[in-house]
Amino acid sequence: MDHRNGKWAGQLLALQNEDGTWGSTFHTLTAADRGRTVTTEQALRRLKALGFTLEDAPIRRAVDTMTACLRGERKIDDYWEKGFDWALFTRMMLSTWVRIFDPENETALLLARQWGEVLRRAFASGRYEDAAYRAAYGEIFYGAPPGRKNPGGKRVIGFTNFYLVHLLQGVLPEETEDRLLEHLLDEPGGIYYVCGGPIRRLPPTFQSRETVRYLDALEMLSGYRLAAGKLAFAADWLRENRGEDGQWDLSPAAKDRVHLPLSDSWRKAADRRADCTEWIGKLLSALESGERKKGQIS
Predict the structure, then answer these.
(1) What is the model's pLDDT at position 297?
(2) pTM of the predicted model, to two decimals?
(3) What's the pLDDT band for 30 if we cut at 50, 70, 90?
C-alpha cells in the first residue's frame, strides 16, 4: 500500500524547508513529536518508513542538500556536541543518510570506503581487535602514526551504531562483512540508537515496543549481503509469530511514530494488523530473497 499520500506524510512534508531540510537542527533520531517542529533526521527516518525514495522530490531535495554539505559547499546547521570530533561525526551522519536513499552516491561513498578500511583492519586477525581499530582510525582520519593514542585528541567513535551499520553496507570485503555481522549479533550493547541488547537474543515478548526496536535492527542488517544466513534464526522466529490468519500483530504498544503506524489511524485493529504485516512481511521477504540468492551462488 502507498502511504506517501497519507496523513503522516502530509504532516511532515508541510514542515519541510525549501532546501529540503526540516527544523533548524539536523541531528536527533528520536521519534518526531506530533505536528511540532522536527529534525531532519526524524523526518527522513519517518518518511523512509512510509515508503519514500530518492524518486520523490522531497527526498531528492534533502539528499542534494546533504551532498552539498559533504562537498563543503554549504553548512548543515550550527549544532555541535563536545567530547569527540563533531566534524567527523557530522560527515558520518550526512554520508549515512545520503547512502540510505542513494547507495551509489560517490560523495558519500568516499567516507564509507574510509570507514570500510578501518573495519577491515580491525577484523583482519579474524576477530575484532580494538588496538587495530584505533590505529587504523587514527591513521585514516588524522594521519596519525601507528601507536599514537587518542588521535585528534577526541573520543574515538565506535562502529556499533545506527550510522556505521548503515554506512558500511556494500563496501566491505566478504570476510570482513562476515566477521562484522558476527560481532554485531553478539554485541552486548546492541546497535546504538536502535536496540540495547545482543541481536542474537530474541525479545521475550513478541507484542512489545522491544520487538519494534529489534525489527529495526534486523531491517538494518538485512542490507548486508550475508545477512540472510546470519539472521535465519530471526526469520524462523518471525514465521512462528505469524497469526493463524496469516498476519502479524505487534499490539498498540508498537506505535513508535517512526516505523508504525503506516495507516492514518489504528482505531481499527484490522488497520494495525495490516501495518504490522506489511512491515514484517517486507523484512521477511528480504531475508528469504537473500537466502535464495545465496543458494543460487553456492
Answers:
(1) 40
(2) 0.93
(3) confident
Domain ranges of the chain: 1-79, 85-201, 230-298
Residues 121-140, mean pLDDT to the nearest whole number: 96
pLDDT exceeds 90 at position 293:
no
Cβ-contact 56, 4 below 8 angstroms: yes
Q: Annotate the chain with DSSP letters as a single string.
A: ---TTSHHHHHHHTTB-TTS-BSS-----SPPPSSS---HHHHHHHHHHTT--TTSHHHHHHHHHHHHHHTTSS---S---SSB-HHHHHHHHHHHHHHHH-TT-HHHHHHHHHHHHHHHHHTTTSS--HHHHHHHHHHHHH-PPTT-SSGGGSBPPPSSBHHHHHHTTTTS-HHHHHHHHHHHHH-TT-BBTTBSS-TTS--S-SSSHHHHHHHHHHHHHTTSTTHHHHTHHHHHHHHHT--TTS-----GGG--SSS---SS--SSHHHHHHHHHHHHHHHHHHHHHHHHHHHHH-
Q: How many CB atoms lie within 10 A of CB 286?
A: 18
